[in-house]
Amino acid sequence: MTEDDASAGLLRQLRAATEPAPVHPWCAGAVVLAGCGRDVVLHEAVGWALRYSGYDAQADRGVELPRERWIPMRRDTVFDLASLTKPFTAIAALQAIERGTIALDGQLGAYVPRLTAAADHRITVRQLLTHTSGLRAELPLYEYRGPERRLARLAEEEPLTEPGSTYRYSDLNPLLLQHVLERTTGRSLARLVRDGITRPLGMTSTRYCPPPSWRPRIAATEDQRRPWGRLDRGLVHGVVHDENAYAMGGVAGHAGLFSTAADLGALCRALLDGGAGVLAPASVRLMLTDAGIPGRSQGLGFELGQPWFMGELAGPRTAGHTGFTGTSLVVDFDSGRYVVLLANAVHPVRTWRQGNAPRADAATWLARYGHGSPRSRVGNDCHNVTQGLGGENRFQ
Questions:
Q1: 20 to 30 A Cα–Cα from 141, which one of 83, 173, 219, 388?
Q2: Residue 200: cis peptide before it, omega within 30 degrees of 0
Q3: What is the rounded average pLDDT for all residues in the chain?
């Protein structure tokens, strides 16, 4: 099988994910970008960025727009990243650690005394980044009017388990980290991400709160209504899908960023290049260090070696993250390979998507790219791959 044949096979799989399988599609459309070092080996779009005007709950079907109003997915389609925002918050935190503004094992109470529960339990920045704070998965902050009331509710939340003892994935961790960063730097999280990540890397299609002029480029998400949603908003298109991020004005540590596959590819290449333009190589190594949580491989802000969405690319130095809307990013630091899959998997409703097969399929395709196992032949079929991290180990 040639590489072109293999690429066509992956695209067939992704197109199949946009059709009933067997009852509902996994997504309305998707964009995939895969690279080896500096070489982009695949960048294609399938399906539709906008297909439905709403969701008929009684019939359990999407209400389709007139065919002429469907918007095809394009390679430059902008997606609501959902929890793929969290790695950006983590990188902003690592930058603050590099500058000495905060410390990895610094306690939140020392930076923001108002975070009383975190102060009482001595929760640290490291525990936020590794999801070991012990905090519950989320809070209905959208029920509270105004930033002061939302912060007060967040500040009083007690951990369910002893901080540092167990892994519990929680949106509250990056939300708390956002308050720490904004308090200690005097800058908004949106500005920290812009000045520290997107602007240096030329990620011109990545930002919070995209302007209305971007709407034709943005993939639609959900007909968000109760009971499957937490707010009654109708079709969400061009504004953040996550209810808490929406209540916070679109800028949050856990969700809110919009981006394209090409922009995320630039971030992947920078991380593979020792963090060039974003982080010091030592910070990237720290990011990839397993936190030592029993039964869970977790770095700082990134998950490590998770086959459920990394497929055969998963390994001890494979980092990545997913987002609720259907997004994912995987970077393998041993082979220098990365894959970005962006899908509007909640269009028209969040209940249709089942499993993570398209995410794992895309990563497995890249793991097999060029035939054989990339881990046995690093550098033979993937040009300019990294051999490690540090000034002497960047792209050759």
A1: 219
A2: no
A3: 92
Say if residue 387's pLDDT is above 50. Answer: no
Classify residue 194 by its DSSP letter.
I
Higher pLDDT, 386 or 228: 228
Structure-token match 């949580």, residue found: 293
Bridge-partner residues for 329, per DSSP? 321, 340
Kindly give the interhelix angle for 357-367 and 3-17, rounded to the nearest 10 degrees: 180
Q: Is the pLDDT of residue 376 over 90?
A: no
SS3 assignment, position 314: coil
Q: What is the DSSP letter of 183?
A: H
CB 164 within 8 A of CB 130: no
Measured distance CA(171)–CA(111) in Å, rounded: 20
Query: DSSP letters of 211-233?
Result: -GGGGGGBPP--EE-TTTSSS--
Dihedral sign, Cα of residue 20, residue 23, residue 29, residue 33: negative
Q: List Cβ neighbours of 363 (8 Å cut-off, separation of 6 or more).
A: 309, 310, 311, 312, 313, 314, 330, 339
Asked whether the beta carbons of 46 and 29 are under 8 A apart, the reply is yes
User: Among 240, 93, 61, which Cα is nearest to 181's?
Assistant: 93
pLDDT of residue 389: 52
How many CA atoms within 13 Å lie on the side-chain side of 89?
Answer: 35
Predicted confidence (pLDDT) per residue in 26-55, tens digit:
999 999 999 998 899 999 999 999 999 999
Residue by residue, DSSP assigns 321-390 as: EEETTTEEEEEETTTTEEEEEEE-TTSS-TTS--SSHHHHHHHHHHHTTTSS-GGGSTTTSSTT---SSS
CA distance 351 to 370: 36
Structure tokens at 189: 């999280």
More reliable by pLDDT, 239 or 7: 239
User: Residue 38's closest CA among 286, 384, 352, 388?
Assistant: 384
- Per this entry, what is the length of the chain? 396
Q: Give the CA angle between residues 226, 29, 350 to the nearest 5°.
A: 20
User: How many Cβ atoms from other residues are within 10 Å of residue 341's Cβ?
Assistant: 28
